[in-house]
Design brief:
Number of strands: 6
Number of domains: 4
Distance between the termini: 239 Å
Strand content: 5-15%
Shape: elongated
Order of helices and strands: HEEEEEEHHHHH
Number of helices: 6
Radius of gyration: 65 Å
Largest sheet: 6 strands, mixed
Strand order of the largest sheet: 1-4-3-2-6-5
């Protein structure tokens, strides 16, 4: 009986020690692993390198780990990643999650963007835990645009291959050869080009002098035309004023002499025409008489015609 009691005591002490060890381990685990909150993140991109237990960092500080990763059943385009984050970490409105890759192939989840005094993210998501929105990281954008970049590189390679074909290479060689010959020709014609440039500089200098002289002449002409006292325009104005005054005087004189001119046209001019006509006839008669006097002598005025002389 006494032996059985000893066994009972030994068993009870052993169980108590085992329970104490378990409590100690749990207490140590609670010290090393503080209380954590669960959050869901939905990535619409590849999460290659992320696995259960992968690190979760907030601005580079480790704050948790990945608890679960799977495709979202409602939309397989999204990958659902559930993370555990220490409760002391401020997961606030404005916080976003992104993938942070490395050259070793290990990918971590990076949290960033906590805004001071913003309320925490507590609204439950589609699966009952709060959801942290995502933000495309540099690596994610690069991976997303990689197919487009590859297509562009392929197209560029094809175009370069077409440009650098055998025919184009031959033509390019001819162009380079012609360019080399042209360069040599220019180098040999250097002194002539220099002399031509010198002459061109002289011509430009002379043109500048001519332009300056023309500007002076233009200023002088402008002064001669627009001078208020002795300018040509002023003189022309005075002349036109005098001409207008003379024209007005002639008009007045014409108006005054108009009755006399009418009488002159009606009476004097016909009489003058008759007198001129008679004078013309008299002049004609005198010319005929003069001609007769030259041919026959003055006897034509005092006697009849002379008889002819007869020889015996």
């Amino acid at each position: 009986m006494e032996t059985r009691a000893n066994h009972v005591w030994v068993g009870a002490v052993t169980l108590a020690l085992m329970a104490g060890v378990v409590l100690l381990v749990v207490w140590i685990a609670r010290i090393n692993h503080p209380e954590q909150n669960l959050y869901d993140i939905f990535f619409k991109q590849s999460v290659d390198g992320v696995a259960r237990g992968s690190a979760v960092s907030f601005s580079g500080v480790p704050v948790g780990q990945v608890a679960e990763i799977a495709l979202w059943e409602k939309d397989p385009q999204y990958v659902r990643v559930r993370i555990r984050v220490n409760r002391s970490v401020p997961i606030l409105i404005g916080t976003t999650a992104s993938l942070q890759g490395s050259f070793t192939g290990v990918t971590t989840i990076q949290l960033a963007g906590a805004i001071k005094n913003a309320p925490p993210i507590t609204a439950p998501g589609p699966l009952g835990v709060p959801q942290i929105p995502t933000k495309a990281s540099g690596l994610g954008e690069l991976l997303s645009s990689a197919p487009v970049l590859l297509d562009h590189l392929t197209e560029l390679t094809n175009r370069l291959s077409a440009v650098l074909s055998d025919k184009n290479q031959k033509e390019l060689s001819n162009i380079l050869a012609n360019t080399d010959r042209l360069t040599n020709s220019l180098a040999s014609a250097g002194p002539e080009v220099k002399a031509t440039l010198t002459e061109l500089q002289g011509t430009i200098r002379q043109a500048n002098y001519t332009l300056a002289s023309f500007e002076k002449l233009s200023d002088s002409a402008n002064l001669a035309l627009n001078d208020d006292h002795q300018g040509l325009i002023r003189q022309m104005h005075d002349t036109l004023t005098s001409a207008k005054a003379a024209a007005d005087s002639l008009k007045t004189l014409a108006d005054d002499t108009r009755p006399g001119m009418r009488q002159l046209n009606d009476r004097t001019l016909p009489a003058a025409e008759n007198a001129i006509r008679d004078l013309a006839q008299t002049t004609k008669a005198l010319r005929e008489l003069t001609d007769q006097m030259k041919d026959r002598g003055i006897g034509t005025l005092i006697g009849g015609p002379q008889l002819p002389d007869y020889k015996q």
